[in-house]
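Hey,
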Amino acid sequence: MAPKRSYSPRKLGTMLDTAHIVIGLAVVIMAFFTVLEPVKYIFLFPVIFLLAAVLTLITSWFMFTAFKRNSRKKIAGIIYLIVGLLLFGLFVISGISIWIRG
């Protein structure tokens, strides 16, 4: 049986900040190319939605993990979870409409 990992809130915060920087930078770069030439880079729209969903779901996981006893933070985590699932739904819809039909 593998040992259970336990992360401190400080370490989780650092991991969350790193994910925000890396994924946020990727989204900004892809959005820049998409705005410059939308027809050429239309395939990036679903990827942008996917990365935004991943980032939001990571934030939701952080809220549930780091703030186990704070009910306001848990409500914020639930809201992040709902928004992340909606963004994932947009990824699926845009991916089907652009990649399969396109």
